[in-house]
# Entry
Amino acid sequence: MHAFDVLGDPVRRRILELLAGGELSSGEVTTVIRREYGISQPAVSQHLRVLRDSGFTTVRAEGTRRLYAVDPTPLREVDVWLERFRGFWENRLDALATELARGRRRRRDPDPPATPPAPTRDEQT
# Structure
């Protein structure tokens, strides 16, 4: 399965978000996903299987529990693919940051003192 097919599903994206905070048991993941999406335990297990089979997660047994963690390798591959498109939004984000900074300066100093005009030629002599 292609990485974007895996990431295209909101449930799988949410599972990865949960796992980005650290290793979780399948039960912990299932509890959150069932509450947020209202899907069954077998459906959550299927999403976990897709993530594992596509390399986005690792799983290890600890007694009867299965602990899942993010495997960043496929995410790096997605990041490399996205690199060619970053220029489309980075300049806009830089411009937005500039405008936000201007707005903050205006709020801090809404009525800056007027700068005196430069002296005219006649005033300089």
User: Anything to note?
Assistant: The helical segments are 3-7, 10-20, 26-37, 41-53, 73-83, 86-108, 121-124.
